[in-house]
Specification:
The protein is of the alpha+beta class. 25% of the residues lie in helices and 27% in strands. Among the domains are: 299-348, no CATH class; 485-702, Sandwich (Jelly Rolls). It is globular and about 80 Å long.
Length: 708
Amino acid sequence: MTSLYQRFLAVIGMALALSGGQACAAAPAGDGFGRLPPVEDPAYSRYQRQSIYVPVRDGTRLAVDIYRPMTPAGVEEKPLPVIFYYARYWRARQLPDGSISTNLGVLMKGQSIGALTSRDSSGRLLFWDTGRESIPEIMRHGYIFVRAEGRGTGASEGVRLTDYAPEEARDGADLVAWIADQPWSNGKVGMMGGSYPGITQLMVAAEAPPALKAIFPAAPALDFYRLMSGGTGVLHKGIVGFQAAQARSDGLDVEAPVAAKVVPVDDDPDGVRLREILDARVANTPPDSALRALHGLSPEFAGTVQALAQAWELTSLAEASATFLDAATLMDRQRPDANLQAKALAGLHLFRDTEVFSEPDTTGMVSPHLKLPALKAAKVPTYVWSGWYDMDTVGATQLFQNLDGPKKMTIGPWSHGPNEDNGSQRSPLIHAEARARELLTAEATRWFDHWLKGRDNGVMNDPPVHYGYKASGAIRWAGAEQWPAPDARAETFHLLGGAGEGGLATTPGAAAEMSFTVDYLATMGPQSRYHDSFSGAPEMAYPDLAAHAQKGLTFTTTPLADDLVVVGHPVITLLARSTAADGDVFVYLEDVGPEGTSYVTEAVIRASHRTLASAPYDVMGLPFSESSRAAVAATRPFNAGPVRLVADLQPTAYRFKAGHRIRVVVTGADADNYITPPILPEPEITLSVGGRSGSAIVLPVLAEAGAK
């Protein structure tokens, strides 16, 4: 694995510190990272909202909100660049008193003009509608904001049967062209937004609309197979529930009282046309759309769910969800019948050669990695934004690696979010979401100023990559010419045997074996990086993980003599065997200190998906599971003898303090986050540790320790 980091040969930029969203230490020469440009004349203090229907190429009309900045004299008539936010989510939401909640704040009933307020009395940015960025602040710098609902959502016409369908991308390209042609537009359009709209930007950019000059995707994903299965077939509970709910939501959400929250366009004040659209949507949404969505992800999975639901006489979607997504209930159902256990084991996973993950020309959902050839050709300037605790940080890094046009990337110690700061949790992982929003707003403004206004503001002279990690109560930032950070060296830590607890050291030690019995109720809890993304958890908050470590095997270093900073992609190799034919192995990297045990990052490997292959895109030398039906069928069973399980953990930038210890934890389940089919009685997994060929983890360690 040393060669992975030897291929990166650039010089890292100087570090800068960020506290409360403001640079508080000398920045590297020529690096304006995180510095919000000053607002120039004219001073925009208000905005005007207009809501209309815009037809796309097949005649479907999409609901669009237009927010234009105003001076004291009135609406700005000079053509301005446009920031376009486009997704399946509603563009606004009607509140019980008739007011409307928007990305810019709340407008009282009947109002179309609001204050362009971006900061509170203390100077801190305000964030409306839980956004990752401050749209009012960006507008104050001379931008129009356009917000559109995808077809089949909110007040837009049409029906949607899946997310990320080709027609969604084409619609977005049509809207970009329409925006550029309006008299209030200067013909240059940028797109921004996070998560779903972050991915949508990639799909629209692949259509190469000429007016799309730059995008700023936050919390994007690149490979849906990696996103949905950890890259090795193991189903995320959050994504399964999310996809099923999304497939039905647009039909169900139009029923009272939810329909009252949909905001009609201006020329339909009484909602007559809106009611017709919603009624048509209900009529045209198939009653089995949730199952159809799961079938699209995996025919085997959907068929297994149907077969087991029938065997267990589950009569409703709610009852089926409660059974398959609750580990204890699933075990109770499975325990009496070995045949049903085998059926679940064979069917409750994902294959990479399913259409959604392998076919770019389809009418259904398309994974963004299948659009890479078009994205490379379009060369739309792209600023990738992510967090170390996002659901798919690796996807952001690999997206950045695979883009050919002008590009930048920033990753910091925050989650998918957005959440506010919370210092009350036991773990030293304290949310930096408010600081992330400040920083994102500044960087987005600089990015769009350059590409939409033609300003030579130095943003392209900055290091292409900025990464941050917690140090001394603040975020220590560093710039790099590429990713992974070129001054990180690969250091191997061997898993060692021990009485009760294993060791972790850079020397191999003696060969040994350590075993544990799988506990299917082992869990990282209901507020993990995945629940923060999919399940509406109020925040990501891992507890002290000391008790969780007892559910499997632990391997821990002696206390560190100096700070150790890990920056990049850890890679785990386990030499393992099981008493069962298949199974899941979860690996966690943790920080053990006086205040408790803290989460750093993780990986999951299904033994039957362990066969590695060449990837269809640049994975930076990281392991890539083939996970095809044929490869899985040809893979030797887990109980046929020792096998090598290799996987990369989600990338990280993390400082282990002097006196702390590094821990690797290995378990056989994560009950709140993944669907692991139980095999009963519970199997035993044995790891070969120590010796030159035993289990080990490779950590990318900075050449110099971080500040203490």
